[in-house]
From TrEMBL:
<dbReference type="InterPro" id="IPR010987">
    <property type="entry name" value="Glutathione-S-Trfase_C-like"/>
</dbReference>
<dbReference type="InterPro" id="IPR040079">
    <property type="entry name" value="Glutathione_S-Trfase"/>
</dbReference>
<dbReference type="InterPro" id="IPR004045">
    <property type="entry name" value="Glutathione_S-Trfase_N"/>
</dbReference>
<protein>
    <submittedName>
        <fullName>Glutathione S-transferase</fullName>
    </submittedName>
</protein>
<dbReference type="InterPro" id="IPR036282">
    <property type="entry name" value="Glutathione-S-Trfase_C_sf"/>
</dbReference>
<dbReference type="Pfam" id="PF02798">
    <property type="entry name" value="GST_N"/>
</dbReference>
<feature type="domain" description="GST N-terminal">
    <location>
        <begin position="1"/>
        <end position="81"/>
    </location>
</feature>
<feature type="domain" description="GST C-terminal">
    <location>
        <begin position="87"/>
        <end position="210"/>
    </location>
</feature>
<comment type="similarity">
    <text>Belongs to the GST superfamily.</text>
</comment>
<dbReference type="Pfam" id="PF00043">
    <property type="entry name" value="GST_C"/>
</dbReference>
<dbReference type="InterPro" id="IPR004046">
    <property type="entry name" value="GST_C"/>
</dbReference>
<dbReference type="InterPro" id="IPR036249">
    <property type="entry name" value="Thioredoxin-like_sf"/>
</dbReference>
Length: 211
């Protein structure tokens, strides 16, 4: 079995990277230099035709979409418990949170980071503020969910917590941040303290602020 993760530091590759380290499996890390535009070159777009990071290879089979990669890895390593068992109610909740994070929270984050892809330059600042106004109630939903629990699904860490951590840290330089919400902050601290997370930060060379 060979796994390879195509990544660039501090991107959507982070949750799959964290999960691979949590699982303790062998994998190759292949850096794509986005500064040089390598994510748009012919070799990379053969792997991910969207020209986006990450991509993942498993014995010649290619996946893209960070949430799909995470869920697939959970399925390949059920013994590690990073997703509840298939067919359980908790698995249903796992899908709910994972899909909501990737199709509701993540697009608004992309809108914040790349307003020029959606509106003319003169409207960019206003568009970013609209994204921020949409994002913060979504982080409040996570915060409320965590009011009386340690993890988003069940009673142990799952891939959904890693994904929520990744998307929360994308707010670290915004005027309002996920870490300002106290229950969510506890989750971020808990995930940050894990050896797998520390290793990812070390290897990706991520400096403060951490989230
Ligand atoms: N929905 C995709 C989004 C991936 C994505 O937006 N990747 C960003 C980095 S965080 C990227 O490659 N950006 C380069 C670009 O847009 O040119 C996923 O979750 O895998």
């Amino acid at each position: 079995m060979t796994y390879a993760l195509y990544y660039s530091p501090s991107t959507a590759a982070m949750a799959p990277h964290m999960l691979l380290r949590e699982l303790g499996v062998e994998f190759e890390l292949r850096r794509v230099d986005t500064q040089k535009g390598e994510h748009r070159n012919e070799a990379y777009t053969k792997l991910n035709p969207n020209g986006l990071i990450p991509a993942f290879e498993h014995d010649g089979m290619i996946l893209w979409e960070a949430a799909a990669i995470c869920t697939y890895l959970c399925d390949l390593h059920p013994e590690a418990g990073f997703a509840p068992d298939v067919g359980t109610k908790q698995r249903g909740e796992f899908y709910k949170w994972m899909i909501w994070l990737t199709n509701t929270v993540q697009p608004d984050l992309i809108g914040w980071f790349y307003p020029d892809r959606y509106v003319p330059a003169e409207n960019a600042e206003q568009y970013k503020m609209t994204m921020l106004d949409r994002l913060m109630p979504r982080y409040a939903i996570l915060d409320e969910r965590l009011r009386d629990r340690d993890w988003l699904v069940g009673d142990r860490i799952t891939a959904v917590d890693l994904y929520a951590f990744m998307l929360s840290r994308w707010t670290r330089n915004m005027p309002r941040r996920a870490r300002d919400l106290p229950n969510l902050r506890r989750l971020l601290d808990r995930v940050m303290a894990r050896p797998a997370t520390q290793k990812v930060y070390e290897i990706e060379g991520i400096a403060e602020p951490f989230f």
